[in-house]
Every structure is written in structure tokens, then in C-alpha cells.
Amino acid sequence: MDEFFKKLPFTDNILKGIGQIMLQENRWTGLLFLIGIFMGSWQCGVAVLLSTAAGTFIAMKLNYDKSEINAGLYGFSAALVGVALAFLFETTLLIWILIVLGGALAAVIQHFFIQKKIPVFTFPFIIITWILVFVLHHFTNIPPSEMLSSEVVPSEYDDFLTCTNGFGEVIFQGGVLSGIIFFLAVFISSPIAALYGLAASILGAGLSQLNGEPIKEIHMGLFGFNAVLSAIVFSGVKKTDGLWVLIAVLITIAIDDLLIDNHCLDMVGGVFTFPFVAGTWITLLIQKIFLKTKK
User: Fold this and answer.
1) Sign of CA dihedral 103, 49, 145, 158
2) Is the dihedral of CA 58, 62, 63, 68 positive or negative?
3) pLDDT tens-digit profile of 42-89?
4) Dihedral sign from CA coordinates of 258, 260, 263, 268
5) Rounded Cα gap, residues 22 and 40, in angstroms
6) Separation of alpha carbons 260 and 182, rounded Å
7) What's the distance, CA 266 to chain centroid?
């Protein structure tokens, strides 16, 4: 089956790009993510395909490094731009156009930071989506999507399901089944990353509950998904990896709760994955300082 995808390199790059949303260079992970997204919403599924294709296509046309394109590095921020716009707004013609243009722009910004050797993770997605959400809210009358405006009723509390919901919310999917599929998608690529991510989601939910955050939103995974991503970045088999995962996750949770409690980013659509990016940057800085002092 792998040979089949190798005969379709563009499709393969798109799937790897979707997989890279959770830092997995794995076409099967990407395919499972795509299935989980379509299960939640066909609009989000189509949007993620269009935006990832746009990001990958522009990277190819601008002759970016082939190995980086093949690894899906120009697809994941693009994918998140697409799914975010389809999740937040009714999919009018303008939104579909912005999904494609936003995906292409995400790849260009990603390339700039890759060239500078700056690990920005999903930062291009965050910046583009914040700007687009602000402009769309203030200068258009496009209504919110049905997914955003409909009341989400959480299932009966279950620690495991709450924490796999943290995986689902990384890609704006609130369904229990999507969360489980996303967890399994990461697990088949990297069991250690999936398990660290699950532990981080548990910790995020638990600490946010102690901090008095709304229980419904905790159950939905809204206070766990950034922690999941931070844990995946630092996951590994060394004992010290566990320490760095813990530091990154605690910093990410603190930033997440602080920003949400103070409604700091409500006007641009919310925090998205910014707590993950900020928490990871701070942890990498601490790690760099620690390694220097150790020498």
C-alpha cells in the first residue's frame, strides 16, 4: 500500500502534511486524521484538503526543498488554517477562497522560518487565522458555522474520553470518536508520543479543573489540546525527555488558562495553538540555557 502512495507523490505529501499537525511524518496518521475530520464535518474535511493542497502546491511551484515538501512541512499550518475557517464561519464563497489563499500563504511564511532555522511550529497558522478572523468579524456579515453556534452536550464524564477529546480539539473536532481516532493515528506513528500526549491531556484537564475552569469545556478537551502538542514535541524514550515534557506541559497549561481566563484573544477568535507554541518556545529556551550551563 505504501508503494501505491509513492506513485501519487502529491497525495502522499498532502497526507503527510495533515499528519504533521501533530508532528507525525506519517501518511497513515494523516489519513486517519482526515477520516476523523470528515466524521465531524464534511466542510472541515474538504477545507483541510483544499488548504493543505494549496500549501503543498505553492511550495512545489516555488521550488522549496523537496525533502521538506515530502515530509509534509508545508502542509500542517495550511491544513489548520483551512479547518479553522470552516469551523468558525459558514462556508460562503469568500471563505472557500480564503481557505485556499490562507493555505498558500501559510506555506510561504513557514518557508521563511524554516530558512531562518527558527522552530515556529504552528505559528504561521495562528497569525494568518487571527488576522482573517479579525477582518471577517469586523468587515463582513458572514455568520458563524453551525458547528460553532450549536450547543455541544458533553457525554458522561470519563477520564479517558475527556483526554482523547484533547487530541480531537487540536484539529477543531469535538466528537468523542474523532478524538479516539486521532489518538490512535498518533499511536501508530509514535506510541511514546501518543502516550505522553494522553498524559498531558489528563494533566491539562485536571489542573484546569483545580483552577475552576468550566467543566463542560474541560470535558470537550479545550484545556488539553495545547498540552498534547507540547508533550509530543518533547516526547522520547530517555528519562530526561519525561522531565522536559512535564516542564513544557506545565508552562503551556499556565499560559492557556491565563489567556482564556482574561479573554485576551477573544477578538481574534481565541487562543488556538498559541499556548503550545509559546510554551514550547519557553521550554526550548530553558533547555538551551540548561545545556549551556551544563557544559
Assistant:
1) negative
2) negative
3) 999 999 999 999 999 999 999 999 999 999 999 999 999 999 999 999
4) positive
5) 18
6) 24
7) 18
